[in-house]
Amino acid sequence: MGYSADTPYFSGLGDAILLAKDFAQNDDCFIFLSDRLPMEGYSQILLNFHQNICDGIINVKQVDNPKFYGVIELDVNNFISSIDEKPENPKSNYAVSGAYLLGMNMSSRLFELLEIQSKIPLENGQEHTLTRIIQQILEEGFKLKINEMKREILDFGRPESLLAGNRLLLAEIKISDPFYETRQQSGSLLDSKIVPPVFIGKNVKISDSVIGPNVSIGDNAVLKKCILSESVIGDGVNLKKIISSSSIIGDYCILESLIKKSITIGDSSFITTTKSNSF
Questions:
Q1: Which residues lie in coiled coils (predicted)?
Q2: CA–CA gap between residue 147 and residue 72 (Å, rounded)
Q3: Nearest alpha carbon to residue 142 among 65, 56, 270, 209
Q4: Quick count: other Cβ atoms within 10 Å of Cβ 162?
Q5: Distances (CA, A) of 213 to 162, 171, 196, 238
Q6: Cis omega (within 30 of 0) for bond into 197
Q7: Are the beta carbons of 178 and 193 closer than 8 angstroms?
Q8: Does the N-terminal peptide bond of residue 213 adopt cis geometry, omega within 30 degrees of 0?
Q9: Cα torsion for 257, 260, 265, 268, to the nearest 10°?
Q10: How far apart are CA 35 and CA 33, in angstroms?
Q11: What string of pLDDT tens digits covers the 279 residues of the chain?
């Protein structure tokens, strides 16, 4: 992470991990990516690491389109023989699934290689990756195995996978009041219909709207005269006369009079036909 003038840029996962060098270089390192959430948790990867004679474990899942991910290839003894980042012609369908447990006997070498890589100048669009470093570690003889996830892994890195993850989470959680009848009684949900499953955050006000199914709404939002389904709505949004499905609306957006499906709108966006910045 750095800045060019006042614009932040991300130099890659490798450099992000390097920031932890002083804390972790002589210890076991557990690295997980926040945009990947395994439904079965991380306990199995820890168990596999302690049960196997290896230097580390990489979390994987078999997927239909591995070219969108880092791809693992195994040897005849089920050790990892190679790792390749988003290959055009994947050698397997084992996709890296956002978690790595690297033992203390290799952590010092990991950070040495990350440090060397960080000094390589980057051209436009390039990154200092973790994948390249792991491949070098494999070539140096370290032994890594996989932990294969069986249940779904929620991938929040792309709009379509974020919406799919939202559906899975809503199917898993148990909401004691799925129609939010208590909110109707309190007055924060007026003349509106909830079609479960729906998650509504704290201090949300909804009126004259139809919400659901598969909609998650963050805290402190205000929705008036909206029809929303299969969507994720951020914190602090203010929506009026919005009809949409399969959409993602970021935090603190102000939107009015919009009929469109499959939209992705970033944080603090302002799209309205009125002259003021609030309703």
A1: none
A2: 11
A3: 56
A4: 16
A5: 16, 11, 5, 20
A6: yes
A7: no
A8: yes
A9: 10
A10: 6
A11: 555 555 556 789 999 999 999 989 889 999 988 887 777 778 888 888 988 889 999 999 998 888 888 999 999 999 999 999 989 999 999 999 889 999 999 999 999 999 999 999 988 778 899 999 999 999 999 999 999 988 877 778 788 889 998 998 899 888 889 999 999 999 999 999 999 999 999 999 999 999 999 999 999 999 999 999 999 999 999 999 999 999 999 999 999 999 999 999 999 999 987 665 555
3-state secondary structure the chain: CEEECCEEECCCHHHHHHCCHHHHCCCCEEEECCCEEECCCCHHHHHHHHHCCCCEEEEEEECCCHHHCEEEEECCCCCEEEEEECCCCCCCCEEEEEEEEECHHHHHHHHHHHHHHHCCCCCCCCCCCCHHHHHHHHHCCCCEEEEECCCCEEECCCHHHHHHHHHHHHHHCCCCCCCCHHHHHHCCEECCEECCCEEECCCCEEECCEECCCEEECCCCEEECCEEECEEECCCCEEEEEEEECCEECCCCEEEEEECCCCEECCCCEECCCCCCCC
Q: Which residue type is seen at 79?
A: F
Query: d(Cα 144, Cα 87) in Å, to the nearest integer?
Result: 20
**Contact predicate 269/253, CB 8 Å:** yes
Give the total residue count for the chain: 279
Token digits of residue 197: 């499953």
The two three-digit tokens of residue 60, written as one number? 């994987």
Task: Walk me through the domains of the chain, giving residue ranges and CATH numbers.
Answer: 2-156 (3.90.550.10), 172-271 (2.160.10.10)
- Residue 34 CA to residue 14 CA, distance in Å, equals 15
With tokens 């750095």, the residue in question is 2
The pair of structure tokens assigned to 102 is 């690297």
